[in-house]
């Protein structure tokens, strides 16, 4: 079972946001951690690299940051509390095991942890796999695209991503939330919201346009 | 003879489909079709990285849920059971969570090699020609790739003889077709290796295998009943098409 829609969308429809004009569903809370935050992505990434060589202190720091968020992710997807706790621990254990596969030039730590949590969640929730392509399996073509670190450093990427999330319209934020936190693909979202499939597809496309723009190096 | 595939795919997943894949909200068979396309397509891999970055950002924004009091020490205790810190062997063991994957030795580059994401689904086979093709209808053979899951995912390989037309059909759910070798064409265009055709409720099409050799493609759906419906139609004689 998935969590009730109301709780999933509480961000998008929270009454506290109506005061300030258009709702900004993902607007960063005015948290005191905001300025230290700016170096957070780099610190997490460094810790993840350190974990690959067996650094337990780094692992404990990563655990402190990610385990509660992974648990929140599992809870949002409707996992019972105990299962969510177990999956958060499993995810962190997998982080420990697979840390040597992490490439800081390709993804932020949060992105990488997200993909591990996502795969474990699919395995646990549906007894299914998530077929993927690993980097050495790209057929025929060399990827000569600039690497992520040549585009934007991790902290700037993270900051601009947060900004892009805050720029999503409530409708865009809603379909993004349902995609990531309700285990619904676009046809099921259309059914759930009772809007045409084309509308859901275009909201997701426009959301990705904003994300892509934030991650691009257009201002360099 | 091995001829490098000199072209990139022309037909790509929509953003909506990439988001569904990256968010992990697609049924397994549909994800497999997307993964096969990704194996051919650097552009879509870059686009996927952006979807996953979005996932990471969403994870960061979640209000942390309180852990059990001994959560960290319980996890550290589990680490102690692991013999050594992470190394490539360990990574291999972690990979076993999703089923063992045979060492990825690239097959011959003649278009008949199995793309890596498919390999776990056809154990022991490394080439499309060596699969156990079953006759389904005149000009159409198939290999079932995965048992239908509780979530409704289903995926099959179809091998369609040149000139064979599949019946005109619409789509209630989501149906993905990715070409592994040969070509097919429908009202929306011509599809070659790596190309992904995305058919949903808005699509109505009639695919035709249009090259001189068999067209082999992977077809995945999210709705087993509808897929059975399509299979049922495939069994019909193709007279008058």
Brief overview, please?
Chain A is mainly alpha-helical and 220 residues long.
Tell me how many strands of chain A there are: 0
Overall helicity of chain B = 25-40%
What value does the average pLDDT of chain A take?
Answer: 80
From the coordinates shown, what is the CATH architecture of the domain at 15-54 and 114-235 in chain B?
A: Sandwich
Distance between the termini of chain A: 46 Å
**Terminal residue distance of chain B:** 36 Å
Q: What would the principal axes of the Cα set say about the shape of chain A?
A: globular
CATH top level assignment of the domain at 15-54 and 114-235 in chain B: Mainly Beta
Give the largest interface pair and sizes.
A-B, 96 and 86 residues
Strand percentage of chain B lies at 15-25%
Q: How many β strands of chain B by DSSP? A: 11
Approximate helicity band of chain A: 55-70%
CATH class of the largest domain in chain A: Mainly Alpha
- For the residues shown, what is the average pLDDT of chain B? 76
Largest beta-sheet details of chain A: none
- Number of distinct helices of chain A: 11
**CATH topology call of the domain at 15-54 and 114-235 in chain B:** Jelly Rolls
Number of domains of chain A: 2
The rounded Rg of chain A comes to 18 Å
- SS strand fraction of chain A: under 5%
Taking the sheet with the most strands of chain B, its summary is:
6 strands, antiparallel
Descriptive terms for the model:
heterodimer, A: 220 residues, mainly alpha, Rna Polymerase Sigma Factor, Chain: A, Arc Repressor Mutant, subunit A, 2 domains, 0% strand, globular, disordered N terminus, B: 241 residues, alpha+beta, Jelly Rolls, six-stranded antiparallel β-sheet, three-stranded antiparallel β-sheet
What does this structure look like?
The complex is a heterodimer of chains A (220) and B (241). Chain A is built from 11 helices and no strands. With 220 residues, chain A is mainly α. In chain A, helix 9 packs across helix 11 (197-215) and helix 10 (186-193) packs across helix 11. The relative contact order of chain A is 0.13. Chain B has 241 residues and is α+β, with helices and mostly antiparallel strands. In chain B, the strands form 3 sheets. A 6-stranded antiparallel β-sheet of chain B has the order 1-2-3-11-5-8, with helices on both faces. In chain B, 41% of the residues are buried. Classes of the chains: A mainly alpha (220), B alpha+beta (241). Chains A and B meet through helix 4, helix 5, helix 6, helix 8 and helix 9 of A and helix 1, helix 2, helix 3, helix 4 and helix 5 of B.
């Amino acid at each position: 079972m998935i969590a009730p829609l109301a709780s999933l969308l509480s961000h998008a429809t929270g009454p506290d946001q109506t005061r300030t004009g258009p709702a900004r569903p993902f607007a960063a809370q005015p948290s005191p951690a905001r300025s230290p935050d700016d170096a957070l992505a780099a610190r997490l990434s460094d810790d993840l690299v350190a974990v690959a060589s067996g650094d337990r202190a780094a692992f404990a720091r990563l655990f402190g940051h990610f385990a509660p968020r992974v648990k929140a992710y599992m809870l949002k997807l409707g996992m019972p509390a105990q299962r969510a706790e177990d999956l958060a621990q499993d995810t962190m254990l997998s982080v420990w095991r697979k840390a040597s596969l992490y490439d800081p030039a390709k993804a932020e730590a949060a992105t990488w942890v997200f993909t591990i949590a996502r795969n474990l969640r699919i395995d646990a929730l549906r007894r299914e796999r998530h077929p993927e392509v690993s980097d050495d399996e790209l057929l025929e073509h060399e990827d000569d695209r600039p690497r992520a670190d040549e585009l934007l450093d991790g902290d700037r990427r993270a900051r601009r991503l947060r900004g892009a999330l805050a720029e999503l319209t409530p409708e865009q934020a809603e379909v993004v939330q349902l995609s990531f936190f309700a285990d619904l693909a676009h046809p099921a979202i259309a059914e759930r919201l009772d809007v045409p499939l084309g509308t859901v597809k275009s909201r997701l496309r426009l959301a990705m346009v904003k994300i892509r723009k934030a991650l691009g190096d257009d201002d360099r | 003879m091995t001829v490098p595939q000199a072209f990139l795919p022309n037909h790509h997943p929509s953003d909506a489909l990439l988001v569904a894949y990256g968010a992990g909200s697609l049924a397994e068979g549909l994800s497999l079709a997307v993964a096969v396309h990704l194996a051919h397509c650097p552009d879509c891999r870059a686009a996927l990285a952006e979807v996953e970055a979005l996932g990471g950002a969403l994870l960061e924004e979640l209000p942390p849920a309180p852990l059990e009091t001994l959560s960290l020490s319980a996890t550290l205790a589990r680490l102690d059971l692991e013999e050594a810190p992470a190394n490539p062997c360990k990574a291999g063991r972690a990979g076993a969570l999703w089923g063992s994957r045979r060492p990825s030795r690239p097959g011959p580059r003649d278009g008949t090699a199995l793309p890596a994401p498919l390999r776990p689904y056809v154990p022991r086979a490394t080439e499309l020609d060596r699969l156990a093709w079953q006759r389904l209808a005149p000009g159409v053979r198939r290999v079932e790739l995965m048992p239908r899951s509780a979530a409704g995912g289903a995926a099959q390989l179809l091998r369609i003889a040149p000139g064979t037309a599949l019946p005109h059909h619409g789509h209630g759910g989501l149906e993905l077709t990715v070409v592994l070798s040969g070509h097919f064409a429908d009202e929306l265009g011509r599809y070659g290796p790596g190309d992904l055709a995305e058919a949903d409720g808005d699509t109505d099409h009639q695919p035709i295998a249009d090259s001189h050799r068999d067209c082999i493609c992977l077809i995945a759906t999210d709705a087993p009943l509808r897929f059975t419906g399509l299979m049922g139609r495939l069994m019909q004689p193709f007279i008058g098409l």
